[in-house]
Amino acid sequence: MIIPNNVRYFDVNSGHKTPLDYLKEIEEIEEIEKVTVVVFSSGLKNIKKLISIIKEKTQILFIISGYIVRMQIPTYEFIKNTDSEIRVINTHCKFILIKTKENYYTITSTSNLDSNSKIEITEISNSKKEYDFFLNYFIKNSTKITQK
Amino acid sequence: MNWKIKAWKENENGNQRNESKETYSFQKSFCIKKRKTTYKEVRDISDIKKIDLPNKNETLKILTSNNTNSIKILKIFDIIELSIVFAVIDKFAVDALKQIKIKTVIARANQNVLLSKIAETIKCEKLKKKKIHMKLYLIKTKDSKYVINSSANPKISDYTELYVIDNSTDLYNKLSKIIEII
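YS: structure for the whole thing
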């Protein structure tokens, strides 16, 4: 999927497609350089799925909520054992920010990474300005976790 | 089993919650033309009053923190009619919404009983209970149709929340049709 930079794509669905599915579609046609995942909640299964989609050399930045740190211990322990940078922020909104060689995608969704049967809405746009705004906000307002 | 272990086990099972077994299938995607977009951070509740709403066919994307909530955002608008879609609501939001003419409410079907009952007290033309997690506020004013697509439920939240405010008849109409058929 390539979203031109003059449109915004919306998807309202009940479990047919998750933000990870869109990430996979982008990965299949473009070379991803960096992925930033901002997430409130995630089961371990979905973090493993995320890692499996992304190529080994791709840089991943996890910006996770305190909920994951406190309540989703297997997920948090797994993320800590990756080589990825981890930051923590008190967030309820969910983003996947994807920098490819040529594009800057922002996927924002009411859905966490998991697939569920609840009706969710996802918006995807392709804009460097937007990508930079959200990335800078989350970096500026989060705390870096020192690993290992 | 204490609550911490219970949450852990839920997460190991892919974040399953105690949802109903109701099967429901809905999928609709569409594109709209991107227009001028402004980005803003709102750190303090008092800043909300200073927000300049987007002009016709423009978009405003806001990230909020520090106990801002969607009802405070709604108060910026001179609302004639509102449709609202959410997963969870609190009694403060219900009180505020009682003052507004509400066309449609779509609320999460199996949120806890208390909150469902509160949702039913909002006077509206149509109340639907669905397995829903998206949050939408479709606002009609005298001159414009606005859409707020948000991470935030109508409740107090001290999390960072996203509000995408579109002054767009096109997007309003597209999402109105969707919530009609959900």
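YS: worth flagging: Chain A is about 30% helix and 30% strand.
IM: good catch. Also Chain A touches chain B through 51 residues (CB under 8 Å).
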